[in-house]
Structure formats: structure tokens, C-alpha cells
């Protein structure tokens, strides 16, 4: 909104728990063209290693670039830009309630109640009330930025997925993002209904670094931990007088947890609608077939009907990686999707599809 220059006459209130300044997370995504946050891209790769079940390859995804943005750079840039615009007010505290009441928006933050009048409200706080029909997998991950004395890494390529690790907890893989020959982010990722104990993430990381990277001596420079819910629940863009964005507005892909680029695409649609004075209800929803695909795969992973290791290995072994990335971005054609679906094991997916349609 600020970059567009079209909202200089509007007051904007930004509410957050605190002003984060640490490198507490990393966002990874792929694009063919420079994106809105291009200047923040810390590293990018067009060649990605994949280690799966009966399939190992270096994938050439060009013209896509697999990009990485560090949290600390993102926060610094955004708050610096926001500070240049006096019409933006920042309010920090824990939001305990937000609702419309008698035509007004009432905010409960920390121990205060505030009447905000009648603004347009965008909310990214996820508050879930689950039913028995809901499937919820957690994508949870712990990452270490490690540094070595001797060169170990190839900065020219990253590891997208390495499934060689133990799968006893469920679908588990590691990805590796090299910064230099001496430093990389190593991320241990799982798709399971429950979290692990903290020491189990550490054990998984140590084991992978020692056994598969062949590194016995290293220094942990930074750590990060995150949880992304992967659910078949419908998250409404507009509900009770409030527009929901981010994961709260359904921008997390249910089958993979990818969120960052979906948020950017939705944000652009919202701003264009506001600039052109179109109702936000005119923003098109993603084609329903993608939700069907996601829920089918989510059903299989949740009920452990096929190992995730086998599914993703088959997906990349039998398809051009660019087709897979288009599919995961909800930008594939029906022809792409026919090739994708026909490459996967037929019977388990048919059964899961039937359960998805007729729960």
C-alpha cells in the first residue's frame, strides 16, 4: 500500500505483538521474475539437489530461481519503509480479542480495550476451532546456521529435499541452503500431527550433518524454529466484518505448508482492488480443484496411507521439476495436472479422493 503512493490520505494502524529484530525465521520460495522483495533476497539457486526413494538428482529449475529471505533483513526493511510514512501508527502488544460490535471495531490488547471506530480491518491472527472432520498436520522444523573451518558446501546449488533420514516419526526431510563454502542453513523438517521434544530436533540435525554431510566439527551460529499448520479447514477471507489474510485467510497451501508467495499474490490483489475502488469481494478465489488436490494429498499423509518420501520421490522422478513447481504454486494448467496425477500411485489417491469428496 505504501509503495503504491495511493494511500497518503489514509490513516493506517499496524498492530503486532512486538517489533521483531532477530533472525528468527527464513522464507524460501521460487519465482521466475524479480518479486516485490527482490532486494532482500539473500541467496538464490536454479539447481536443487533431491534425495529420495530410488531417485537422486540435481534438478534444473530455471527459469525459476529458488530464493531465500532472512527474517532479520525482512523486518529491518519493512520497519524502515514504514517509518518513512507518518500516516502509519504502530501499536505493540498481545491481541486478546478483535471484533465488530454495533458498527465499531473493539480491540482487546494486553489489559486494554480500545474503540477503533469503523476501519477496514485485515487480520492475520489464526484462531482455530477444530471439528472432528478437520485434518491438521503440523509442518514443524528446526534449523541451524552452521559454520565450518574447511570448505564443505557448494554455494551454486541447494538441497530442496533429502529424505534419506529416518522416517520413524512420519514424513521427514532436511533441506540445506549454502551461503558460502563454509556456511549453510540446515533445516530438519517434519509433517506430523504432534511436535517432537527439543532434543529430538537437535539429534536429527546432528545425525544428518555428521552422516550425510560428512561434517564432524562445526559451529552453530544461529538457530530457528517454526510451526506451520497444514489443514483441510476452510479459512474465510471475509468473516464477521473482518478480512483475514495470511494463514488465517487460507494462504497456506494445505499439502506443503508453502505460504510466503501466496501471501504476496493475495496482498497485490487486495491493493489493486482498493486502488481501483473495487469491492474486495471481487478478488477471485483460487480454482477449487487445487483445494481438492491439497486435501487428497493431506488425507494420504495424515492417515499414513503412503509414505511422504515415496510420494515426493515419485512426483519429481516422473515430472519435469518446473511442472511440479507450477503445480505447487497453483499456477499449473489442466494438462500439467493430468500429467502430475497420472504419475502418482492410482489406487491410494483414488481412495483418498473419494474420502475427500464424501467425508
UniProtKB/TrEMBL annotation:
Pfam families: Lycopene_cycl
Domain of life: Bacteria
Protein name listed in UniProt: Lycopene cyclase family protein
Taxonomic classification: Bacteria, Pseudomonadati, Bacteroidota, Chitinophagia, Chitinophagales
Amino acid at each position: 500500500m505504501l509503495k503504491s503512493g495511493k494511500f497518503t490520505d489514509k490513516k493506517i494502524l499496524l498492530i503486532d505483538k512486538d517489533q521483531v529484530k532477530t533472525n528468527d525465521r527464513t522464507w524460501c520460495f521460487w519465482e521466475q521474475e524479480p518479486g516485490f522483495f527482490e532486494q532482500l533476497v539473500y541467496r538464490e539457486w536454479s539447481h536443487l539437489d533431491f534425495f529420495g526413494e530410488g531417485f537422486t538428482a540435481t534438478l534444473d529449475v530455471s527459469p525459476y530461481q529458488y530464493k531465500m529471505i532472512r527474517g532479520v533483513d525482512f523486518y529491518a526493511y519493512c520497519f524502515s519503509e514504514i517509518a518513512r510514512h507518518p500516516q502509519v501508527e504502530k501499536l505493540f502488544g498481545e491481541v486478546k480479542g478483535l471484533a465488530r460490535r454495533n458498527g465499531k471495531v473493539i480491540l482487546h490488547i494486553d489489559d486494554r480495550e480500545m474503540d477503533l471506530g469503523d476501519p477496514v480491518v485485515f487480520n492475520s491472527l489464526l484462531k482455530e476451532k477444530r471439528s472432528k472432520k478437520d485434518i491438521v498436520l503440523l509442518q514443524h522444523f528446526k534449523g541451524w546456521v552452521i559454520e565450518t573451518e574447511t570448505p564443505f558446501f557448494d554455494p551454486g546449488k541447494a538441497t530442496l529435499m533429502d529424505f534419506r533420514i529416518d522416517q520413524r516419526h512420519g514424513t521427514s526431510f532436511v533441506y540445506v541452503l549454502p551461503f558460502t563454502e563454509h556456511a549453510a542453513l540446515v533445516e530438519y523438517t517434519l509433517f506430523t500431527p504432534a511436535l517432537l521434544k527439543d532434543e529430538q530436533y537437535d539429534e536429527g540435525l546432528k545425525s544428518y550433518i555428521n552422516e550425510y554431510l560428512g561434517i564432524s566439527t562445526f559451529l552453530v551460529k544461529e538457530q530457528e524454529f517454526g510451526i506451520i499448520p497444514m489443514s483441510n479447514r476452510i479459512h474465510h477471507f471475509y468473516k464477521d466484518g473482518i478480512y483475514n489474510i495470511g494463514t488465517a485467510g487460507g494462504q497456506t497451501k494445505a499439502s506443503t505448508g508453502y505460504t510466503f508467495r501466496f501471501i504476496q499474490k493475495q496482498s497485490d490483489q487486495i491493493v489493486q482492488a482498493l486502488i481501483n475502488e473495487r469491492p474486495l469481494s471481487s478478488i477471485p478465489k483460487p480454482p477449487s480443484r487445487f483445494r481438492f488436490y491439497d486435501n487428497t494429498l493431506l488425507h494420504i499423509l495424515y492417515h499414513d496411507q503412503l509414505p511422504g518420501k515415496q510420494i515426493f520421490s515419485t512426483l519429481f522422478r516422473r515430472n519435469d521439476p518446473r511442472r511440479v513447481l507450477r503445480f505447487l504454486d497453483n499456477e499449473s494448467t489442466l494438462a500439467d495436472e493430468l500429467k502430475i496425477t497420472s504419475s502418482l500411485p492410482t489406487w491410494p489417491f483414488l481412495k483418498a479422493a473419494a474420502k475427500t469428496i464424501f467425508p
